[in-house]
Amino acid sequence: MKKKRIVILLGAGATVPWGGKTSDKLTKTVLDPEENETNILSNTEKIPLGKFLQRKIEEFYKLNEESHSNEADDAKEVINFEHVLEIIEYLFSYYRNKNFSNHIWARPSFPSVFKVENEIDNEIPEEEIEIWDIENDKNQKKSVTLYKLYQEILWRLCEQIRDYSESFGKTDYEKKDHKFCEFINTLSERNILRVYSLNYDNLILQQKGIQDSFFNGFESENKYRYNYSRIIQNADENCFYNLHGSFYFKDDHINHYAASEIVFEPNTPTVIRPEHNVELLGTPIIRSQIITGSQKLLKTLVQPISAFNYIFRNDCYNANEIMVIGYSFTDVHINNILASALDSNTNNKFNIITLIDNPNSFRDFQNQLIRSFKNHEKEINTIIFMEEQDWLYSENNTFSIYTKGFLS
Questions:
Q1: Which of 36, 200, 253, 348 maximizes the CB count within 10 A of its CB?
Q2: Among residues 333, 323, 248, which one has the least CA distance to residue 296?
Q3: CA distance 13 to 373
Q4: Orientation of helix 23-31 relative to helix 81-97, angle to 10°
Q5: Closest Cα partner for 90 from 327, 317, 388, 293?
Q6: For 203, what's the count of Cα atoms within 13 Å in the CB-facing half-sphere?
Q7: pLDDT value at position 68?
Q8: What is the pLDDT, as a whole number, of residue 34?
Q9: Is residue 401 left, alpha or beta, with left meaning phi > 0 and alpha meaning psi from -120 to 50?
């Protein structure tokens, strides 16, 4: 019997059973660290600079609600660490290039919009001034502060992933491990599982009960280098691909995207020093092993991330079922792929596993679904929240929502 195809998309909520944080909690942790865990503060308020920038973005949307009411409300609700990293990257490029004669990417009005000119710490140790070759220029010093903040946030993200990754296989989490492996094994008996993660972890490959049944794009017999042909051509095997990179990825040698090669590091997650002054298709970016910050879609052009995203789109189009676990539907690019797949394949079933425990939370989630799947608004509105029901269904059963959380 021919196996059916299931695409599984993992969001931050998929890691909660092992102590991982949902997107909003992760944002609070990495942008608002405990006292004394950072010395990168705003000059006037003396709060973590990342948290300060988050507030400025929220203030910006609030001030513009009259002219952009719907967009402002939507954006204000989902300001997370990725939006802050995007602002940091824009500001970094602005100050880094401000004194250069050719700075077409720098945006003169951008910092004034958020009024952060006087908030960025200029105190840079003498040894770092020499390393960066910035002399005593205030704009260059600001760029260094912003770069250090970018790297600090990445380290906090990596630490969070390391914390819950260490739970895999531990005695306290044996039941969760067993339940997860049983869930995957049951599905794989009659289906080809195409698993894609928006997280930066190594979830499936650290589960001893299933790790050998999934290809992650890299081959151990080839020094963990990626196999492009196998990723693109072999769509009939179980896979686990990180659509936005991973802290388990590293460069075989550091250089521009065109000259470097990403390889897989199966042991401990770590942060590669983000590379600045890199251009991708003529656009300056801060480069790291995860896809975040500004020009996010452009950054997915690096291999094997590009191959992962290409085959993800194809798999969604050809799937018999798309299962979304712990994803909040806040990534516009991913939402467009899911919506296009649902529009083009009327036989596709869309199953969502999340945690919703009250009518207000359900209404917010339902509205987010409508924004993501505008052509299916009528059917999404037929889903009725009933607290006593584990599964909720749309009228034509295109959408199914399990509301009790993953592995509950």
A1: 200
A2: 333
A3: 21
A4: 40
A5: 293
A6: 28
A7: 42
A8: 77
A9: beta
- C-beta of residue 325 within 8 angstroms of C-beta of residue 9: yes
Residue 73 confidence (pLDDT): 45
Handedness of CA 72, 74, 80, 85 (dihedral sign): negative
Structure tokens at 10: 């993992």
pLDDT recorded at residue 36 = 64
Return all residues near 37 (Cβ < 8 A) that are at least 6 apart. Answer: none
- 3-state SS, one letter per residue, for the chain: CCCEEEEEEECHHHHHHHCCCCHHHHHHHHHCCCCCCCCCECCCCCCEHHHHHHHHHHHHHHHCCCCCHHHHHHHHHCCCHHHHHHHHHHHHHHHHHCCCCCCCCCCCCHHHHHCCCCCCCCCCCHHHHHHHCCCCCHHHHHHHHHHHHHHHHHHHHHHHHHHHHCCCCCHHHHHHHHHHHHHHHHHHCCEEEEEEECCCCCCHHHCCCCHHHCECCEEHHHCCEECHHHHHHCCCCCEEEECCECCCEEECCCCCCCCCCEEECCCCCCCCCCEEEEEECCEEEEECCECCCCCHHHHCCCCCHHHHHHHHHHHHHHCCEEEEECCCCCCHHHHHHHHHHHHHCCCCEEEEECECCCHHHHHHHHHHHHHHCHHHHHHHCCCCCCCCCCEEECCCCCEEEECECCCC
350 φ, ψ to 5°?
-120, 105
Predicted pLDDT of residue 78: 67
Residue spans per domain, the chain: 4-19+173-402, 24-165
Q: Order of strands, edge to edge, in the sheet holding 391-393?
A: 239-242, 191-197, 4-10, 321-325, 349-353, 399-402, 391-393
pLDDT of residue 155: 93
Q: What is the pTM of this model?
A: 0.89
Q: What pLDDT sits at residue 275? A: 76
Structure-token pair, residue 77: 């609700």
pLDDT at res. 403: 96
Residues of the chain predicted below pLDDT 70: 1, 35-36, 63-78, 99-115, 122, 125-136, 252-261, 277, 281-284
